[in-house]
């Protein structure tokens, strides 16, 4: 079976899909105390934080596809990018749902006050709305309809990733080690893009000469 | 008919804690085995539920200052807290303080007092009657617990050092020993941890030097062998593993105040009306209530307003956060 062939995708896509659901399955098992597992003394906070982290992890993974493809020449990777991006949206939407329902008890006044008054929540909310726009326009039909604008719109993913990591960083009380790791990984991923953009511009110039 | 007020009953009396927990553990394990059979999964050891452990303290008196709200479980109190000396995660203290040996322990007393010196733990504690104080605890991070501390009223302890008229504040210091406290190997806070109170706050009858929990010696992760408990202030004021008590004329600056002065002040009184710059303090999440419990409103001075509000007449609590 050749990577990139139809049968390759038919086999690997469902596998990747299921693997992407494993973090959720694990969290659910902990939430419902399956087999002696648990979410600890503050289950709402644990669930909220874990879902947020997984959202960010999937976002970083999505941003890894392009540099990895360039580096290895494995062009078939691109066909997994949308799925990973949508899973990022999925986990972040769950993160927001846990915040709104379990943490805030759907107290709209409190939620709006949070969004307006707490900068880290403002950032997170902005990122979620942008991510929603990308999720909605992720279909083949939308790609076709939007044409060139699609790519421009989907460059928002860089802004979303920066806001997301920033949201994490600002929320932490003092020990910023974890968000710093995410920030460095993101910086690396964005850095490769700057590098490739420069290289291709240079090549362009050389060719014109 | 004899009606006992709930607060007259020690949790250790009602509980038969170990029996009760053993029963729960048994049920849980039975459930686990069933779940294991059903799903074909191996059964994890359910070490998440365990009863109070450690040497029992003798001669503990009940106190009218105790709340009659139900106390959090031993597991909640001993596995979820902030104690950066053992790591910044909530479960880090329970994990990394296991091998900490608190005794022998001595406390240096200095500053504006007539009886400075070095006092060992036994001499400090044995002269006093131990009291159980079931207090609400409100963390600055907007979660809360009810904790059955055992300790000695701070006023009685401090008076034996005979503070003089220049003693306006009391500064407490935590042990600095990165060998024994692995969290101190990283510069998260400026070690050693320091906290302070006004002399009036320190002498207030609610202020406690805790040496126990659930009728037992204080577990390492909760600040063994002795820690401050000031129930109307955010938890970070209640400094753990105290090795130094200083009477000062100048206001001490606490570790959190030094780290982020715009977010953590000297007073740190629980106040639902003054938000932390990054989150609201209007509500709190009660620990142990489970995934689907709602938050509850935070009370002024954590519900101790009747006893302590008079300490702050004329003080702008918005400015003096």
Features:
heterodimer, A: 209 residues, mainly alpha, 9 helices, B: 321 residues, alpha+beta, Sulfite Oxidase, Chain A, domain 2, eight-stranded mixed beta sheet, five-stranded mixed beta sheet, 13 strands
- CATH top level class name of chain B: Alpha Beta
By helix and strand content of chain A, what is the structural category? mainly alpha
Q: How many beta-strand segments of chain B?
A: 13
Q: How many helices of chain B in DSSP terms?
A: 9
Query: Low-confidence spans of chain B: pLDDT under 50, at least 5 residues?
Result: 16-21, 23-48
CATH superfamily of chain B: Oxidoreductase, molybdopterin-binding domain
Shape of chain B: globular
Total strands of chain A: the figure is 0
Reported for the largest beta sheet of chain A, the result is: none
The mean pLDDT of chain A is 95
| Helix/strand order of chain B, N-terminal first | HHEHHEEHEEHEEHEEEEHEEH
What is the alpha-carbon Rg of chain A in Å?
19 Å
Sheet of most strands of chain B: 8 strands, mixed
Count the DSSP helices of chain A: 9
Assign the structural class of chain B, choosing from mainly alpha, mainly beta, alpha/beta, alpha+beta, or little secondary structure: alpha+beta
What is the percentage of strand-forming residues of chain B? 15-25%
- Multimeric state of these chains? heterodimer
Q: What is the string of helix and strand elements of chain A?
A: HHHHHHHHH
Q: Using the alpha-carbon principal axes, give the shape of chain A.
A: globular
How many angstroms does the end-to-end distance of chain A come to? Answer: 44 Å
